[in-house]
Amino acid sequence: MKIDSGNTAWLLVSTALVLLMTPGVAFFYGGMSRAKSVLNMMMMSFVSIAVVGMVWAVYGYSLAFTDGGGLNDFIGGFDDWGLVGLENAATLDDGTGIPSLVFVAFQATFAIITVALISGAIADRAKFGAWVVFTLIWVTIVYIPIAHWVWFFGPEDGEGGWIGAGIGALDFAGGTVVHINAGAAALALALVLGKRKGWPRDPMRPHNLPFVLLGAALLWFGWFGFNAGSALGANGTAAVAFINTLLATCGAAFAWIVVEKIRDGSSTTLGIASGAVAGLVGITPACAFVTPLGAIALGLVVGAVCAYAVSLKYKLGFDDSLDVVGVHMVGGIVGALLIGILATTAVNEAGADGLLAGGGVSLLGKQAVSVLATLAYSFIVTLIIGKLIDMTMGFRISEEDEVAGIDSTAHAETAYDFGSIHAGAGVGGTLAPSPAADGAPTKVEA
Question: Which spans are transmembrane here (predicted)?
Answer without folding.
Answer: 12-31, 38-59, 101-123, 130-152, 172-194, 206-226, 238-259, 266-283, 289-310, 322-347, 367-389
